[in-house]
Amino acid sequence: MATIQQLLQNRALIAALLAWLFAQVIKTIIQSLLTKKIQLERLWGAGGMPSAHSAMVCALAVATARFHGLQTPIFAITLILAFIVVYDAMGVRRETGRHAKLLNVYLNEIEQEKADVDGDGVADRDITPITLKELIGHTPLEVLGGVILGVIVGLIFPIVPLQ
Known about the structure:
6 helices; 66% helix; 0% strand; mainly alpha; 163 residues
């Protein structure tokens, strides 16, 4: 019980988790407005506006600076972590999504060709579509949205210090 109490009093951790939660809820609302249907998967899924990963690590870094100081090694660690996560969200993970989109097209074309046994251009057996997840990374604007959200949450939470 003492461990849970200690975790609940960790202001930097709570700020980071709140930033992630806010980003996921905002992402779900934005996606629902754009598609005119509720997609609950957006509450935990990667990709989209704003970047929850960027929001979380930026809130962690800002809250750590507030509560432990800019000169501490723990702030340096959280700042470097934030840089890595933001870079990864826009770079590696975004490219992974682009690759998945192309692979989905090519792999499904190959499956279609393999299912056309007699060569008439029509599949002769049922095909299970291949659907690799494409929404993995973020555009620079989505990352910026996450960074701004994370900085705001890190600055304002908690407004009243926890006891």
